[in-house]
Design a protein that fits this description.
DNA polymerase, domain 1, 6-stranded parallel beta sheet, Rossmann fold
């Protein structure tokens, strides 16, 4: 059947913004006295805030406190990244190329709605993508729920979808759902993403092979 749908993670994939997320997490950790490092950050990168905070704060956390901390962190991120908002290298030509051949396009993101809107509307992508799937009400990555939801809504089986991800948790989620996954090495080493199951890794979208159909099925 070949490639019928492309499903993109948002942060670190469609936009190269992970450094700003990390900076926001470090600022939040300093303000509220919990540990943060590059290794800790990568352990939860790609997951939902509701899954992250209990790990950072040592077990079950009051829902109101988690919500307040998540809101503070995401406001920090948007303040930091908004002046630098830009599409990832090579993504615009890729989206045009896929759209021209009739491939369905979806965003599947753990990001809160305010972050998704900032990027998608800020870059004029609202009409570019056929679908934006969030994981509210779904298990977070590395569970495959968000990619399966995108596949089901697009009515394209996983074997004909190609997922693009930058995080180890995201690649694990794609592979758990039966999807071929391209690892984009914006913030994680290629070896880590290949170890998680990426079929190939690229530093940016300009480095993709011409034959994407060969990666699925």
């Amino acid at each position: 059947m070949g490639l019928l749908a492309a499903i993109f993670d948002l942060n670190g994939t469609l936009v190269d913004d992970i450094a700003y997320h990390y900076q926001a997490w470090c600022s939040l950790a300093d303000r509220h006295d919990f540990a943060m490092s590059a290794a800790i950050f990568q352990s939860f990168n790609g997951q939902k805030n509701e899954d992250i905070f209990p790990k950072l704060l040592g077990g079950s956390t009051d829902a109101a406190r988690m919500e307040a901390l998540a809101r503070e962190k995401e406001e920090l991120y948007r303040e930091l990244y908004r002046p630098h908002l830009a599409p990832a290298q090579g993504i615009e030509p890729l989206l045009q190329r896929l759209r021209a051949r009739g491939v369905a396009l979806a965003v599947a993101s753990s990001a809160p709605i305010e972050n998704r809107d900032m990027v998608i509307d800020g870059l004029g992508w609202r009409a570019t993508f056929d679908l934006v799937v969030a994981n509210e009400g779904l298990r977070g990555k590395p569970a495959p729920d968000i990619f399966r939801a995108a596949s089901e809504k697009l009515r394209v089986p996983p074997r004909s979808c190609l997922v693009f991800e930058d995080a180890e948790n995201g690649v694990l989620a794609a592979r758990a759902g039966g999807f071929a996954c391209v690892g984009v090495t914006t913030n994680v080493d290629a070896q880590v993403l290949r170890g998680a199951g990426a079929v190939i890794t690229v530093p940016h979208f300009d480095a993709l092979p011409d034959d994407l159909d060969a990666l699925v099925g």
